[in-house]
Specification:
By secondary structure, the chain is α+β, with helices and mostly antiparallel strands. It has helices at residues 7-13, 16-19, 89-118, 153-163, 177-187, 238-242, and strands at residues 35-39, 61-65, 73-78, 135-137, 142-144, 171-175, 204-208, 222-226, 250-252, 263-272, 278-288, 296-298.
Length: 299
C-alpha cells in the first residue's frame, strides 16, 4: 500500500535518547508533568583586568515543560469477515493493522511538519553583523540562498549554521522533493567528476518530505537543525504496556510491514458487544528498535 515518507518523524525519533536521556521513565501516568532542564548560553564581553568583585550575568539553566499529544487510529472488524472470503481472519487483521500503522505515521508526520514550520528560527545575528552568501528573510523567517549558488546549497547551509555559532558540524535536514532530488544528483558528483559537488554532504543527514514546500520557494525548501537539538519521545500508559484493564487479549511486538529493521509495539483492546460478534480495536502505537520479533499472545 502507498505510504507517505515519515521524514521528520524518523529524524526526531533518532534523537529521543540523546536529547533527553531517561525522561520516558519519569512519566508514570498521563497526568504527571514532565520537565527538562537545559543550560542557557550567557554571552559576555571579556575584560583585561583581574578583580575580586566580579560582576555580570550568570550562565543559568531553564526549566522546560515537555508537551505530550496522543495520536490514535481505530478500526473495527468481525469474526465472520473471513467467512466466504479470499482472505482469512489473520490476513484481514494484518491488513487492518497495516492501515493503522500507516495512518498513524502519516498523521504524526503532518503534525510534525507543521510544528517545524511554526517553531523555526526567527532571528539572525551573526557576529560579523552581515550574513555571508545568504540572506535572512525576516518576514518569512527563512534563510535564502541565491539561485546562482544552487550547486553549493548544502555547503552554504552549513556555513550559515557556523555563522550563527552552531559549530557541531552534524545536521539533520528535511528537504522538499525539488531540493532533495537535486541533492541526490549533486551527492553523486564526486572527485572523479569534472565538478566535485559531493564533498558538501559530509555531516548532513538529508531526508525527503513530500509535503514540505512553499509557493515563494519553488526552487526548493528545507528545514535544518543541529543533530540532537530536536527530538520526539514515544509513550503509552504502563497499564496498556502490561496488558491490564478490561482486555480479553493483548498483542505485543507486532511486526510493522511499512518499515524494515524496525518494530512498532502496540497494545490492542478487544471488547465484545453484547449479543453481537463484532470486536472493536483501539490502537496506540510506539516505536521501538528491533528485528525479527514475532507475535506474543497473553491469555
Amino acid at each position: 500500500m502507498r505510504q507517505k515518507p515519515s521524514a521528520v518523524l524518523m529524524a526526531l525519533l533518532k534523537n529521543r535518547d540523546f536529547l533527553i536521556p531517561d525522561l520516558i521513565m519519569l512519566r508514570d501516568r498521563e497526568d504527571r508533568a514532565t520537565k527538562a532542564y537545559l543550560k542557557k548560553r550567557a554571552s559576555r564581553a571579556v575584560t583585561n583586568s583581574r578583580t575580586h568583585n566580579h560582576s555580570g550575568s550568570t550562565a543559568d539553566s531553564q526549566e522546560v515543560n515537555i508537551a505530550w499529544t496522543p495520536y490514535t487510529d481505530k478500526f473495527q472488524t468481525s469474526l465472520k469477515r473471513g467467512d466466504n472470503n479470499v482472505l482469512n481472519d489473520a490476513e484481514i487483521l494484518a491488513h487492518e493493522l497495516e492501515n493503522a500503522f500507516i495512518n498513524l505515521h502519516e498523521g504524526i508526520e503532518t503534525a510534525l511538519v507543521a510544528w517545524l514550520d511554526a517553531n523555526n528560527n526567527q532571528v539572525s545575528n551573526p557576529p560579523s553583523g552581515t550574513l555571508k552568501r545568504a540572506t535572512f528573510n525576516g518576514a518569512n523567517d527563512v534563510y535564502e540562498i541565491a539561485t546562482a549558488d544552487q550547486n553549493e546549497f548544502w555547503n552554504i547551509l552549513k556555513s550559515v549554521f557556523r555563522q550563527e555559532k552552531y559549530n557541531g558540524g552534524l545536521f539533520d535536514v528535511v528537504a522538499d522533493s525539488q531540493l532533495f532530488s537535486k541533492g541526490e544528483y549533486q551527492s553523486n558528483q564526486g572527485g572523479g567528476n569534472s565538478t566535485n559537488l559531493g564533498f558538501q554532504f559530509n555531516g548532513l543527514d538529508v531526508r525527503e518530505s513530500i509535503e514540505t514546500g512553499d509557493a515563494d520557494y519553488l526552487n526548493g525548501l528545507a528545514f535544518a537543525w543541529p543533530m540532537g537539538m530536536a527530538g520526539i519521545l514515544d509513550w503509552i500508559p504502563k497499564q496498556n504496556r502490561a496488558g491490564e484493564g478490561d482486555i480479553m487479549l493483548s498483542l505485543l511486538n507486532i511486526s510493522e510491514p511499512t518499515r524494515r529493521a524496525a518494530i512498532s509495539s502496540a497494545v490492542f483492546f478487544f471488547k465484545k458487544k453484547k449479543k453481537q460478534n463484532t470486536q472493536y480495536f483501539g490502537c496506540t502505537v510506539r516505536e521501538v528498535k528491533g528485528e525479527n520479533m514475532k507475535y506474543q499472545q497473553k491469555n
